[in-house]
Amino acid sequence: xxxxxxxxxxxxxxxxxxxxxxxxxxxxxxxxxxxxxxxxxxxxxxxxxxxxxxxxxxxxxxxxxxxxxxxxxxxxxxxxxxxxxxxxxxxxxxxxxxxxxxxxxxxxxxxxxxxxxxxxxxxxxxxxxxxxxxxxxxxxxxxxxxxxxxxxxxxxxxxxxxxxxxxxxxxxxxxxxxxxxxxxxxxxxxxxxxxxxxxxxxxxxxxxxxxxxxxxxxxxxxxxxxxxxxxxxxxxxxxxxxxxxxxxxxxxxxxxxxxxxxxxxxxxxxxxxxxxxxxxxxxxxxxxxxxxxxxxxxxxxxxxxxxxxxxxxxxxxxxxxxxxxxxxxxxxxxxxxxxxxxxxxxxxxxxxxxxxxxxxxxxxxxxxxxxxxxxxxxxxxxxxxxxxxxxxxxxxxxxxxxxxxxxxxxxxxxxxxxxxxxxxxxxxxxxxxxxxxxxxxxxxxxxxxxxxxxxxxxxxxxxxxxxxxxxxxxxxxx
Length: 478
Fold this sequence. Notes:
This protein has 17 helices and eleven strands. It is α/β, with parallel strands linked by helices. The chain folds into three domains: 227 residues, Leucine Aminopeptidase, subunit E, domain 1, CATH 3.40.220.10; 38 residues, no CATH class; 117 residues, CATH 3.40.525.10. The protein is elongated and about 80 Å long. Belongs to the GDAP2 family. This is Macro domain-containing protein.
């Protein structure tokens, strides 16, 4: 058997393009008034020469180590995890069961790579994102990247591939997650750059464009890009390690609070002052102006507002809009000829549905869903319905006039009731359960309908030959 390095599918990191050699866009000159500003992330050619951005299968990279994002019990069923475990072999599973078992959110732990081209795997658990706990999510994500790099440094892992730890599957916004990732890696390389030869940021179709947009802010490739970054960096770029700064949780402890008033110029040293009174005064002077003592609102809400300039509802709309636009972009690059030919949507539905519906959804429209010949083996899971609704609600809800479900089963009725009662309450009034095709003809003229033949055949078999439905007939009457 050929060694791993000789396998055709293994990718050598030396063949990847370094960040400092990637093509630069054209940047406009810095706006007047910014001349005095200094970038917190200056142009460093030495750091850029250690960085690569690559889109592909991380399990194929021939590095000393790779970072694997998973769940707390290391049994996450994602495509990336499946490939890593499949290629590493059963020995990886045995080591996890005997030595690791569980990893907490934000932690990172090391195993051997076994059958992988990489010698080691660093497993870490990214946070589940909730806008109510923004600060906790940011801190946990920072810990994931920082701890992974620290383990690599301690184990002399000089070439490392880092996957996107902030995943959409855990609800983390790709944009804000990329900022934390890039700045944490930048700060670590500033301090311990000599410990690494190459750091590969492994992307996929969902986050490649985002990394190419965010990375120049933290790793500018020339002086013009550094100038561009100054006016485009977010207000919060973390501390000297890239860690999110939470002022509300910083409390200053005085070494000798009794003499703080004098040191700060608020007292006269030669004047006789009661020490108890001075202690209270100096403490109030030092802590009273701190956010911790001023009864400010929820710091997560404050930070969220500072980050986006909007409330929680507006932030959610912005994130959904961004996700939809990314999916729309992907849908236009996919080949859906085979799907369109079968007229069958589920499994590949989301991208295909977005491509078909995007130009239609700006005007009033009606949706007809045929549940014909559906069995227990191909029911649409509730989780999939919820996912689709969360993505499509932003674009498709406004002009939807009616949603007909034809040939429903008992399960369909139950799932529809549950979904419209607890998730999509705003479309409940537009939903109509239809037992037979004839009802549609009383609402929509036949020449506007393109009904598949198997639906018509099934309807004739179950409901008999077609007949004219009187006006004002409700679905329940059929």
